[in-house]
Amino acid sequence: MFCSVKLFAALLKWPLRLLLKYKVVPEQPVDELKLDTAQPVFYICPTESASDLAALKQVCKKLQLPDPASYIMLDGVKHFRTLFLEKPHSLFLKRGTTKALQQGLALLDSHLKNPSLNAQIIPVSILWGRAPGKENSIKWLLGAAHSPNWLAKLLIVLISGRHSLVRFIAPLSLQQMATQFGADNETSRKLLRMSRFHFYRQRLAANGPKLVNRSQLFTALLAAPALKKAITEEAKSKRISVNQARKNAHKLLLEIAADYRSSSLRVADRVLSWLWHKLYTGIKINNANMLRDLAQKGHEIVYVPCHRSHMDYLLLSYVIYQQGLAPPHIAAGINLNFWPAGTIFRRGGAFFIRRSFSGDKLYSAVFREYLCQLFSKGYSIKYYTEGGRSRTGRLLQPKTGMLAMTLQSMLRGIDRPVTIVPVYLGYEHVMEVNTYLSELQGSGKKKESVFGVLKAIRNLRNYGNGYINFGQPLTLNEHLNNSVPDWKQDIHPLDVQKPLWLASVVDDVSQLVMQRINQAAALNSINLIALSLLATEKHTLTRQKLEQQLDFYLQLQQQAPYHSQMTLPDTNSKALIEHAISIAKVQQHQDQFGEIISLSDESAILMSYYRNNILHLFIVPSILANAILHQRQVSLQDLLKIVQQLYPLLKQEMFLQLDNINDYCLQVLQHLVQTNIVQQQGELYSAPQQQSRYYFILSLLADNAEHTLQRYAMVMQLLLTQAPQSRAELEKQCHQLAQRLLQQHGITAPEYYDKQLFSTLIKALRDNGYTNSDDNNLVHAADALISLNQTVDSLLRNDILLSIQSILPTGRH
User: What pLDDT, on the 0 to 100 scale, is given for residue 637?
Assistant: First the structure.
């Protein structure tokens, strides 16, 4: 039996060189799956197929893994290295059975007799084409059914061989199974059952669920009780016939729904592979193994990335696909539904969402029912809670509509755990960054069009590296079990539920997701250099001083890391600078005294965007540096008090999440003292001598909090010196005061133009008891604000503080 399969596999070696093109996941299975190559290795495959064996031989040879078509001796007994779970279907004869049960029994028996043996058996599947197929489709029955006959397999290889996935799963320990369960038929069957289950989950994760015919989907949605009710109410409220209201609902479905096609994915895979190689030096991906693990366990995955650029839509889906997982359905803004991009995105899994649902109950019902259908069918979903691209580089305050509908979908009775995966997206160049500042200044957002796409394509160049870090997942079932233990009582399969606990849980989840996105931030050449150069008055440093500052930032995050999921560059400061020069992000000047690295006035404004991507990682160390610089000596108790006062505001604005703020401060201070950046005498901390390089490093660190503290001082000064006013008027005055400071001091930071940041700060002051509102909704300063204002004033530069106070007369403080 093994000889015939091995012979046919050998004959297929040369034809498959032309017909087979594959992606291996994980790319380095020995390292990522922790294979012990010193121990015997076996493989287990779903189907006894010569083409599968020949393909696996080719892959294993490239990966320097043992030949799956070879034999191996264990205690004098010869074993074929590959086990097959089942025979392929036959055109005419009855399908037989494989020798897998006997092979498994023999291997377990060998391990039971010899405890020193510890062979590993690796489940491996080869997915030809990665097409999910369609429900009730003859094509699917032929091309994607399990264990196809030789004729069907020939067609599969010819049609889909150049778009295949080879997936290795973590090995099973035969010694562990033999020791734990013994070596009998039942244990051998257990081994095979586990493998079958792995293969089923693997196919589902890689290909996704079978696709539903679009017209059939629409018919099913329009017949759903919740949508029928909404259609009836629409007819009554607008005084139209039920049939017309139904037609309106159908039009909305055509506007919203994706038209997912596997053929489009294959084309997109090739096009995007070319595009990324042209645009980026590399795409750095971290924690992708967690994704595969969730998919293998059968989780419904909801990807929630930050939103930096229109590139996000394409890049994240491409990376997910390259990791051996089905690309998600994507909630895209309706502004992207223009020809031809809308059609292309829709066929790639995009469904379109309006900016606002308010006032359109039918649209809300149609969209919610469509989203519920995606979840119930098992499709992974991707959406952006920020609601739009960040113009400043900071995370935006979340819009909670999609999260609320996700939880409501769970209340329709999804039988799988639903897990949100936060995703940090980082770039060394954002294509739209040139337009962001003008939009903040009020020029208005340009409408997307085919001409804009063509212009962007014409300007393509090397944009450095892209970064995709998958953050700590949040399983909603577990979160609800902890926060609302009886939440399952609100499950209703046919109707939309809005329990009393929904709003508060959605708010909690949205904050957790944003915090976990920031925890997975990626430090890179551009954002670290921006952090260093923008802290200087002329945005200029000698190469030596820039290297020192970069080394300091890297060491700080190594010794006192903000979070374990944050990633650091795998190179030194010299290489970081050379990389920034190579992609024209900094200017390089050479004279007789040495080399100078600088930013032009225009690039300094743009580089603030990249600094803001990672500012949250350094904001607490920067506050500590400010406090030490502004006082001759400061005690540990006073330093902790300053941070504790400011942390609630910083947490709300920058989505900070530290397990213990005091412990983190102590860790930072310890590193600063050990590196001589800060002097310590007992409980007192002080700055080093002003002429030293350590003082210079400390001052650049301190400057990173300057703009944040200035904005805080502005808002508090207005609250303490002006008569009580409405929140809207207060926000308007804050924005006007910011513009005055911009002009007086030449400040170029884009966040001064962002009205949303002032709104967030005013809300944070209210939430933390620093302000309150009277019966007329006028905002009053609470007594606690005086102490907070004094703390902030003590950390500011005198010239900035005097400017604020000269515009606004001194108040109660």
Answer: 96
SS3 520: coil
Provide the pLDDT confidence category of residue 141 given band limits of 50, 70 and 90.
very low
H/E element, 77: strand 77-80
Same domain, 732 and 671: no
Instruction: Identify the three-state secondary structure at position 76.
Output: coil
| Boundary of a domain, candidates 703, 729, 747 | 703
pLDDT number for residue 139: 46
In a domain, residue 645? The reply is: yes
Could you give the angle at the alpha carbon of 326 between the alpha carbons of 322 and 328, nearest 5°? 105
pLDDT band for 737, please (50, 70, 90 cuts): confident
pLDDT at 631: 86
What length is written for the chain?
813
Judge contact between 616 and 518, C-beta under 8 A.
yes
- Full strand arrangement of the beta sheet holding 771-773: 725-726, 778-781, 771-773
Q: What local confidence, expressed as pLDDT, does residue 5 receive? A: 85
Which of 659, 679, 703 is at the close of a domain?
Answer: 703
Amino acid at 215: S
pLDDT for 645-674, tens place per residue? 999 999 999 999 999 999 999 999 999 999
Range of the domain at 473: 215-519
DSSP H or E run through 302: strand 300-305
Tokens at residue 236, please?
């009554």
Give the chain's radius of gyration (CA, Å). Answer: 30
The pLDDT confidence band at residue 442, using thresholds 50, 70 and 90, is low
Residue 813: inside a domain:
no
pLDDT value of position 444? 58
Do 734 and 670 share a domain, yes or no?
no
- Supply the DSSP string of 737-797, one letter for each residue: HHHHHHHHHT---GGGG-HHHHHHHHHHHHHTTSEEE-TT-EEEE-THHHHHHHHHHHTS-
- CA torsion 156-158-160-162 (nearest 10°) is 140
How many structural domains compose the chain? 4
Phi and psi dihedrals of 376, rounded to 5? Answer: -65, -30
Is the same domain home to 650 and 752? Answer: no
Cα–Cα distance between 378 and 371 in angstroms, integer?
A: 11
Give the mean pLDDT of 71-90. 89
Q: Chain-centre distance of CA 197, in angstroms?
A: 28
Q: Is residue 138 part of a domain?
A: yes
Whether residue 373 sits in one domain with residue 282: yes
